[in-house]
Fold this sequence. Notes:
The chain is α/β, with parallel strands linked by helices. The chain contains 20 helices and 14 strands.
Amino acid sequence: xxxxxxxxxxxxxxxxxxxxxxxxxxxxxxxxxxxxxxxxxxxxxxxxxxxxxxxxxxxxxxxxxxxxxxxxxxxxxxxxxxxxxxxxxxxxxxxxxxxxxxxxxxxxxxxxxxxxxxxxxxxxxxxxxxxxxxxxxxxxxxxxxxxxxxxxxxxxxxxxxxxxxxxxxxxxxxxxxxxxxxxxxxxxxxxxxxxxxxxxxxxxxxxxxxxxxxxxxxxxxxxxxxxxxxxxxxxxxxxxxxxxxxxxxxxxxxxxxxxxxxxxxxxxxxxxxxxxxxxxxxxxxxxxxxxxxxxxxxxxxxxxxxxxxxxxxxxxxxxxxxxxxxxxxxxxxxxxxxxxxxxxxxxxxxxxxxxxxxxxxxxxxxxxxxxxxxxxxxxxxxxxxxxxxxxxxxxxxxxxxxxxxxxxxxxxxxxxxxxxxxxxxxxxxxxxxxxxxxxxxxxx
Length: 444
Ligand code: UDX
């Protein structure tokens, strides 16, 4: 099938490449010309496992092309996947639909110039319940002869394993309001359903809500284990064992029960806030959802005081080292990263940070509060960042941090303290070297 992708970001690019690898002919569109030029040269615009290989392969096979000309996408596509960003509106906390509105207006107008050829618009971006219906009405108002069907097809890909997740979905969700959309969407996902991966058709509103309900539920699950972890730190109960044992109960499942520095990324934090706002608008007081939002913010804001406590209050005017800037490993994304809260809170307390992250530095510089930038220095390797600092904090679970020479690091940090917000090191080994090793869940 011929498919178009509007918005070549994390989802648009990875999934465009996946569809191409599954045998579809894909045209990816983005308004940023430099991005399109770079992709046409075979250079990935983001960090994601295997993306370079898939990009090269599909460009060579000519199963994917990149364009900044909307006409090219619309004239050549039976199904157009809308993959633009729907970030948090910083003023209201609601889902910002401006990119959805601008892109669908352009599609509507452009389609008229192409003789209103039929297409299906599959909305892949996360949008509040009722949005697809409103978008449809809006597009038809702009161009009453627009010949299209709209369906909701939310994505569930995790950054860092987006390609694997797309190719091995727990389920494909498609919200439709007619048989033709169902048949065409069934066809585009046939290479996956033929392998046994399930496709679940619902109405459009249900599909929109499945995305918010799933992400917010996982946000609650992680927030819950983080609170259990705080109890463990005061009582000596072992949070890892609790997570494992809870997970043995099939009703709970062991996944997403790992405590950490708080939840980041482009989805969970903003989707939970947007769902709470959706409830507000409907006149509902969604107490569990609101609590999960606040619990996560509180956890991330508590990181600096935890570090200060572990150093016995001896950090003012000093420099600590920080391993990790991205919100989790295997991505270059720093959106809502706990490292942002940590650095910003430390800066307010006149504590400087030497940081190293293998892929996140550029995006972190762009995201962090400019006031904190004077307090942070970025390094190209871990040892240069750690040298002559007071103590070491690990906040992202990159594999390479596990391989460092901690005997060498022992001589580099003044207070001989490691604070590990991801539990990636071995307690006995660190204590044998002589470190005071604080990890998530450890009784102080
Ligand atoms: C998420 C969803 O998983 C995905 O389905 C959706 O489409 C996009 O949002 P992503 O944001 O890439 O994916 O990251 P994910 O791996 O889900 O982790 C989210 C956050 O939770 C990270 O900050 C991670 O460190 C944290 N986390 C995850 C934990 O603290 N503990 C866990 O057990 C799992």
